[in-house]
Amino acid sequence: MAQKLAFYPGCSLEGMANDYARSIAAVFEQLDITLVEIEDWSCCGATAAHSLDETMAVLLPARNLAAAEKMGLDIVSPCANCFNRLLFSRAMIRKKIYDIPWPVSGEIEVYDMTRFLARPEMVARIEQRVLKPLKGLKVVCYYGCQMVRPPRLTGFTDYENPLTLDRLAAAAGAEVLDWSYKTTCCGASIGIGRRDIQESLTARLLEKARETGAEAIVVSCPLCQANLDLFQRDRAPRRPHLPVFYFTELLRLAFEADKGSADWFRAHIADPVPLLRAKDLLR
Amino acid sequence: MTEKQAESQCEPAESPSDAPGRRRLIGDRGSHFLNRMEAETGANVAACYQCERCTNACPVSAYMDIKPHQVIRHVQLGWRDELLRSATVWVCLSCEMCTTYCPNEVGVAETILHLRSLSARSGIAPQERQLAVFHQTFLDELQRFGRVNEAWLMAALNRKPGILGEKWRTGQLKTELELGWTLWRKGKLKLLPQRCAAIHEIRALYRNRRGG
User: Fold this and answer.
1) Could you tell me which residue, A139 or B31, shows the higher pLDDT?
2) Which residues of chain A are within 8 Å of residue B191 when distances are taken between CB atoms?
């Protein structure tokens, strides 16, 4: 299998989720998979285009699909929303009802990053690379909405109990706990105008994760990570922190245990370093 | 929003055609609105039999004045104006729970999102103004750079009329500044936006959309 993929980072990975971007680069290097960033990619339009202008919601991702087709590579997307938008656009391109200014057939594969890595052959490869399993780290995996729903678009058949992150966190050696809130919405960007709604949704997720006995949450969506992590910034005195890891951060830690440094986690609000040191997973 | 407010918003808005005794079962133009919505979204709106699964699955139905199953009923009956005036179209998270669990594959979230775009173009003042302005600002920034930078997006949002004043009054501004400082300290803010080299292609898309 040709181990070369077109990488569509999305806007978040240039800003708030730059730590996600760094860990992805490290993990894929370890796995000997070349990620080729789509040249001069542009924003997928996210919820805004979807909300206000459905035609733009097709055309904006189409530009990136066309660029990847030109490269002749399948796309892997680390961001749940980008993944969802690319698939939506691809489905519309196939219906051939839009006039798209770029040559695009909609025939390439678009992978969600967790799904690409959670296939059996990749999990086997990941397990081979693990230098130091993350023994004793109790985590719950949180998938959010856009990666799994609507299932007829995303292709997730296990949309009520998705397992891709669970498999990857387990491959890194963590103890993965089961819980019922894997795909319950975190509030997305509603906090912009309605902080009350945002906080009620996010607080419930953190509460349930603690009840389950988790010491950390594993995510793949930059917006979920921001919501869950930032919510904890001024509530430190009352509650113990619940670090929110990108799954690639855990994989990187398991791969490069000897080189692990607190600097990898400096972008976190809920600081994971004390937890990792207590578990003897970080120097 | 208090429960009482939410309740009062569930009452039909008072406009001449909605006055008691004068309300027609089907909207003024028969099933025109239903047909239009079905054609524009591909959602199977007529198939809804009000099982309320969408509303039960919705994480924010408590904050909605017209609940998801009622939205579908409103569309069936052609009650367009109530929908475009509702808070529902702005509160929806597009988490797709409703669509996923609908037994009749109605496409509830797609319907609500389409109503949002209709509402944005209708000239009706949105109930959640900040959210409405935010979505528009996002598209403005996208047109400017081809990509969206979080710091510039928030700055652009704050420059829109009335937003900064509202944030000042509600104390949101202070929270936001503190948040900004935290993000900066953690190295999560990128101050310089990345511009697409082919920004003209993106702008051409916008121009063509406006028929220019």
Assistant:
1) A139
2) none
In angstroms, the CA B49 to CA B106 distance is: 10
Write out chain A residues lying below 8 Å of B90, CB-based.
193
In chain B the domains, ranked by start, together with CATH numbers, are 3-122 (1.10.1060.10), 129-209 (no CATH)
Is A46–B138 a contact, with Cβ atoms under 8 angstroms apart? yes
ipTM of this complex prediction, to 2 decimal places: 0.92
How far is A124 from chain B, CA to nearest CA, in Å?
32
Out of A14, A145, A194, closest to residue B190 by CB? A14
> Which residues in B lie closer than 8 A to residue A195 (C-beta atoms)?
172, 175
Closest-CA residue of chain B to A48: B135
- Count CA atoms closer than 13 A to A223's CA, side-chain side: 24
Q: How far is B20 from chain A, CA to nearest CA, in Å?
A: 33
pTM score:
0.91
Per-residue pLDDT of A56-69, as tens digits, reads 999 999 999 999 99
Chain A and chain B share a number of CB contacts under 8 A equal to: 153
Minimum Cα–Cα distance from A145: chain B residue: B95
**How do residues A209-227 score in pLDDT, each as one tens digit?**
999 999 999 999 999 999 9
Q: Which of B100, B117, B187 sits opposite A266 (nearest CB)?
A: B187
Q: DSSP of chain A, one letter per residue? A: ---EEEE---GGGGTTTHHHHHHHHHHHHHTT-EEEEPTT-----HHHHHHH-HHHHHHHHHHHHHHHHHHT--EEESSHHHHHHHHHHHHHHHHT-S--SS---S-S-EEEHHHHHTSHHHHHHHHHH-SS--TT-EEEE---STTT-SHHHH--TTTTS--HHHHHHHHTT-EEPP-S-TTS---TTGGGT-HHHHHHHHHHHHHHHHHHT-SEEEE--HHHHHHHHHTTTT-TTTS----EEEHHHHHHHHHSGGG--GGGGTT-SS--HHHHHHTT---
Domains of chain A and any CATH numbers: 4-114 (1.20.1050.140), 130-278 (3.40.50.11810)
